[in-house]
Amino acid sequence: MASRRRMLLKVIILGDSGVGKTSLMNQYVNRKFNNQYKATIGADFLTKEIQFEDRLFTLQIWDTAGQERFQSLGVAFYRGADCCVLVYDVNVAKSFDDLNNWREEFLIQATPSDPENFPFVVLGNKVDLDGGNSRVVRCLIVLHSFT
């Protein structure tokens, strides 16, 4: 039997305050949802192991504060990231409009070796609110295509 190879991947979650970054992380890792909103102070992280083909991956998922006053902490938290998840609230157009600023700030502070090909994932959150009646962002325009 072939031995499993283990790999650590650091994933950063970014987006405006209140878009649901913490809820997404907790739902993905713990399969739990908490209705009580509590702003993240600085950053927090959870880990999750997943298997893909013959490899075992440990995802270190960093949930960062969306408030501007904590953005100066970015350098320490972003360094060594393997992927960045940009989250917006489909019911708040500004949170979608701010995604490019989050992306640019991440690239400045993380200084990845190949910024043109760094993997970003964009997630629209809160599609379940109000039966979709409050939704203002209806479609996603691709900012960058990945090959």
TrEMBL record:
It is found in: Endomembrane system. InterPro entries: P-loop_NTPase (IPR027417), Small_GTP-bd (IPR005225), Small_GTPase (IPR001806). Pfam families: Ras. Gene3D superfamilies: P-loop containing nucleotide triphosphate hydrolases. SUPFAM superfamilies: P-loop containing nucleoside triphosphate hydrolases (SSF52540). Keywords: GTP-binding, Lipoprotein, Methylation, Nucleotide-binding, Prenylation, Protein transport, Transport. The keyword Nucleotide-binding applies. It is a lipid-anchor. PANTHER family: RAB FAMILY, RAS-RELATED PROTEIN RABG3C-RELATED. Belongs to the small GTPase superfamily. Rab family. This is Ras-related protein Rab7-like. It comes from Gossypium arboreum.
